[in-house]
Structure formats: C-alpha cells, structure tokens
Amino acid sequence: MLTHEETLLFFRRKPALSVSAIEKQAGLPSGTLAKAISGDRTLNDKHLAALYPVLLEYGYAEMAERKARIISVVNHKGGVGKTTTTLNLGKALSLAGFRVLLVDMDSQGNLTQSLGQDELDKQVVHALLKNEPLPIIPIAKNLDLAPSDLELAYADLELVQVVGGVNQLKNALAPVRGNYDFIFIDCPPL
Questions:
Q1: In what order do the strands lie in the sheet with 182-186?
Q2: Which residues are within 8 A (CB) of 155 and not within 5 positions of it... i.e. 6 or more apart?
Q3: Is the dihedral of CA 155, 157, 160, 164 positive or negative?
Q4: Consecutive 10-residue runs of the chain (190 residues): their mean pLDDT?
Q5: ∠ CA 20-26-30 to the nearest 5 degrees?
Q6: What is the pTM of this model?
Q7: Contact criterion met (CB below 8 Å) for 78 and 85
C-alpha cells in the first residue's frame, strides 16, 4: 500500500509532473496534492488508494523497487573533511525527504560521536565479522546511523584473513539497501 511519505518522495523525485493533472486523473479534490507536498495536509487512505493506480502509470513501481545509491566518501589523507561531508550531505538529503543511512567505517568513530552516540552495544564490526544484522540507530527523521568505534581498527586483520572478507560490508548492507534512498559510507584515510 502506498504511504503519504512515499507519495511525497515520488513527487520530489519527479518535479516535472503536473500535480493538478494527477489530482484530476485520481479524482481528488483540487489542491489536495499541492497542500500535501507543501506540508499543509496529510493524505488519508482514501486519497492514497485513488492515487496508487495513477502513480503506477507515471513510474511509481520503478521507484518502489529502486535500491539506495551507495556513496563512499574517500581520501588518502586524514583531516580533509570526509566525516563532515558525509554528515552534511546525509542531513541535507534527509531534510529534503530522502531516507538516508550513514555508515561509519572509520575506526576513530568521529561520525558516530558527532551524532551523539558514545555508548555502543552493537556496531558495524559485529556485522562484518559475526554476520549479525547491521546495527542501525535512528538519529532524526529519515536519517539513520550504522555506528563504529575503535573496535573496528582491530577488525582489519581479521577481515583480510576471512574468505570473502572484502565483500562483508556489501553483504551487511544488502538486507537494508531497499529501505533507503542514499547510503553514505564515511571511510578511513587510505
């Protein structure tokens, strides 16, 4: 079933669509979608049911099946703004209505700490080495974090020795990739 948030995201991704034409085609009262897009109203189940077949005609199914874009923020040097870039891009996109996951792959854990997460029960290293689900902490609306700390520094040697260790992050992200529009990976200096 189509949700209010998915509808808004669809229109953000396809700004060239005529809102009034889609309202007319779905049989919605004039201004309903415009008010929902501007944040002045929430679409109810009746509106969503009427919109669903119309949005399918305009490519909604393609969007629903689309997986997150994964973007790694990398540089050879430390102190060049990788963490700041990751955090700010993620926050900006989440404010624009996109669902964003930030993955802290730097063992210094600066991204995790900058988001106020200091005491960690689970972190990315557990998903990489123990095949546990990727730990995800909600930070704000549309913004989640997969945290790390110094324990990740000790995992490098183990990951190199594990068969297929280079694919562990890819495998950990696979089950959650469909839940997000963007996944940003804050990498350590190379």
A1: 69-73, 182-186, 100-104, 143-146, 137-140
A2: 125, 128, 129
A3: negative
A4: 84 87 94 91 94 90 75 93 96 93 93 92 89 94 94 78 79 90 92
A5: 40
A6: 0.72
A7: no
